[in-house]
Design a protein that fits this description.
single chain, 483 residues, Beta-Lactamase, seven-stranded antiparallel sheet, 15 helices
Length: 483
């Protein structure tokens, strides 16, 4: 696997052969001084909208307002002793460790350190220049420390776990002042099924910048590891569909199969009718490919699936049920979940509608209340955009990326996943009308019927913005709009 990764050039060209850079180089430039002033103002409680890269500013907001990270922290805390994720992703970590060791040998001459973390930001391994590693250890940048944003603020590893693609954090862009002499570049490896991060790889350099070639190298390195994640997703889907086919003949009523992320892989005729999936041909046949799976718009289902997966670990005979509004506008329907287990790991769930068997699910309303934002944060070009919920007409999902359609144009949400955005905006009058769309009911201007009876919402009568409404959501939407 590592043979496919190109050579790594970590250091920019230097005028001298010694390989050292003058002290303070990362904070001496005018742009770095501007970021440092913005950091001082922001940490003091002011809002900043420009002068700092949007992905960094979004991270600062998380660190200050959500995680409340102490900016005077000078060492990373120790990580919690939970090895569940290590067991689940052992093959992935082995491949990533090989890449880390390979990169460590290449960057040793440039005074850099390569680190690999799990999806929680816990450092699993470190390679590179021995003197740089000793300096990094002063900040506890070493195995079994936690470098998530929640624990240690804006940094290459933690911030990469919060967003897709490579991220660089240089000098005063770090949330904690003690790390302002470091330049970091990191990238997360994400589960193709759940979209959540499972690991990250990061390159750090003390008091010296990183070359422009580091981010492309990280992208190519991660692509090699993600091939293994994709192969695992295909294998798991095949097992889930096989189990679904075995049980389907024994079930009376709607029945469907989901992957670990709650995406629907297969459904019988009754479930297809109930969920309005007649046009989803891959679901009827069984969706092996991750991109062909149906992203459910049943409110609360992703949380129930996560709960069921946690409860079923180590117990293939477990079952549990929840009551959810499967059909909008109607009473909640009971759903019973049973795990599909392969080699002691939950790889999917079988769901029977109208059945209550096993352990009952109880939601935690405090978690939802705690997630409400002071503002909605979006990103556009080189700016962070602070939005009042009333400014947003609707949100549209493109897989895990969510676009906010506003008076100020199309803006990418800082939060990933439509479920997360829905949780934030529901208290402000937003409702899911389609598996890909969330609308502000106060901003609906007109309704229009299609030639086949489809319902569309016109959010702006001037531009004739059309938002499709799924058949399942149409009755409830009419009731809420009074039409």
């Amino acid at each position: 696997m590592t043979g496919k990764v190109p050579p790594l050039a970590i250091a920019p060209s230097r005028p001298t052969g010694r390989g050292h850079v003058a002290d303070g180089s990362l904070v001496a430039t005018s742009s770095a001084r501007e970021v440092a002033r913005a950091w001082e103002n922001f940490a003091a409680g002011d809002d900043v909208e420009a002068g700092v890269r949007p992905e960094i500013l979004a991270s600062w907001y998380r660190c200050r307002d959500r995680y409340e990270v102490d900016r005077t922290l000078n060492v990373a805390p120790g990580a919690r002793g939970d090895d569940t994720q290590l067991i689940d992703n052992g093959v992935i970590f082995t491949a990533l460790g090989g890449l880390g060791a390979l990169a460590g040998r290449e960057v040793e001459r440039d005074g850099a350190v390569v680190t690999v973390t799990d999806g929680d930001g816990r450092v699993l391994g470190s390679w590179g220049d021995p003197s740089a590693q000793r300096r990094a250890e002063l900040h506890n940048l070493a195995p079994w420390s936690s470098w998530s944003e929640e624990c240690t603020g804006t940094n290459g590893m933690g911030t990469s776990l919060e967003m897709s693609g490579p991220v660089t954090v240089t000098g005063p862009e770090h949330w904690c002042e003690a790390f302002h002499q470091w330049a970091c570049a990191g990238i997360s490896i994400r589960d193709v099924v759940t979209g959540s991060p499972v690991a990250s790889i990061n390159i750090s350099r003390w008091n010296a910048s990183l070359s422009e070639f580091v981010s492309p190298w990280l992208t190519k390195a991660v692509a090699c590891v993600e091939q293994e994640i994709y192969r695992r997703a295909i294998y798991e889907a095949d097992k889930v569909i096989s189990e679904f086919n075995k049980k389907n003949s024994q079930v009376h009523g709607p029945f469907m199969a989901m992957d670990r992320g709650g995406n629907v892989i297969a459904a019988n005729a009754a479930a297809v009718t109930l969920l309005g999936l007649a046009d989803e041909a891959p679901i009827v046949a069984g969706a092996i490919e991750p991109a062909e799976r149906w992203i459910s718009d049943i409110s609360g289902l992703p949380d129930v699936v996560r709960w069921a997966k946690d409860r079923a670990q180590g117990n293939a005979q477990w079952s549990g049920y929840a009551s959810l509004p499967v059909c909008p506008g109607e009473d909640a329907t009971s759903l019973t979940l049973r795990p599909v287990v392969v080699s002691n790991h939950v790889v999917g769930m079988l769901c029977s509608f109208g059945v209550q068997e096993g352990e009952p699910y109880e939601s935690n309303p405090d978690e939802l209340a705690g997630a409400l934002p002071r503002r909605v944060i979006g990103m556009r070009n080189d700016r962070l955009v602070l939005l009042a919920p009333s400014e947003i007409r609707y949100a549209e999902a493109d897989r895990n990326i969510v676009w906010l359609i506003t008076e100020r144009g199309r803006i990418q949400a800082a939060n990933r996943g439509l479920d997360n955005v829905e949780r934030l905006l529901t208290p402000f009058g937003f409702r899911r009308v389609h598996r890909r769309f969330l609308v502000n009911l106060r901003r609906v201007a007109e309704l229009e019927r299609g030639i086949k009876g489809e319902l569309f919402l016109i959010m702006d009568s001037r531009s004739h913005e059309f938002v499709p409404v799924s058949r399942r959501h149409a009755p409830e939407l009419r009731r809420m709009l009074g039409v």
